[in-house]
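> forwarded from #structure-qc
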């Protein structure tokens, strides 16, 4: 089973991915947690661009790189873990590309680029106001990244809402209030995952 956590920067996807993995492992499940950009060669290049260690490219090239990293991530890490019978929990998936990098015709093109990506069994979107997310990033002393400007995060938050509306007819997507305390959010996430696991 592939479970994906999504949300803007500072929504808590990384924290909740780790907590969900621990909670499922305690229940006896074999779990593999991962993230995007991945730790593969394309993902490492993307992370260098996001933090400014390498100059970022134009929007078209960035969309291609994210799609290439996802394909490589599937090949190197996700599909082998699934084949071993593990539950894979990914901090971000193609929903991020759709929300971060496109709208209108651009989003349609990005959907084509990601057409071969595996569809998650469950996607959980953690919704957090961009101002709250920015305060969280500041409190964590996280360095400013490529998409962290507040205007960009507002646009991305809107993009996520649009993506969920577009995909919810064909995918299992749950939207949760990511501004709640960590324990409450973790409990809600676990409840939805256990429901899917049956």
């Amino acid at each position: 089973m592939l479970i994906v956590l999504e949300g803007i920067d500072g929504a808590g996807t990384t924290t909740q991915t780790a907590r969900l993995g621990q909670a499922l492992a305690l229940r006896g499940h074999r779990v593999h947690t991962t993230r995007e950009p991945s730790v593969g060669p394309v993902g490492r290049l993307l992370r260098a661009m996001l933090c400014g260690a390498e100059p970022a490219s134009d929007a078209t090239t960035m969309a291609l790189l994210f799609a290439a990293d996802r394909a490589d991530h599937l090949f190197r890490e996700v599909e082998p873990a699934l084949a071993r019978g593990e539950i894979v929990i990914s901090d971000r998936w193609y929903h991020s590309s759709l929300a971060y990098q496109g709208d209108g015709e651009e989003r349609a093109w990005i959907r084509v680029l990601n057409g071969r990506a595996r569809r998650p069994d469950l996607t959980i979107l953690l919704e957090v106001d961009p101002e709250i997310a920015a305060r969280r990033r500041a409190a964590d002393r996280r360095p400013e990244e490529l998409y962290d400007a507040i205007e960009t995060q507002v646009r991305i938050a809107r993009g996520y809402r649009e993506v969920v509306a577009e995909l919810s007819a064909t995918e299992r997507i749950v939207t949760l209030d990511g501004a709640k305390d960590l324990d409450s959010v973790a409990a809600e996430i676990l409840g939805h995952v256990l429901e899917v696991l049956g």
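QC bot note: The first strand starts at residue 2 and ends at 6. The domain at 2-197 is CATH 3.40.50.300 (Rossmann fold).
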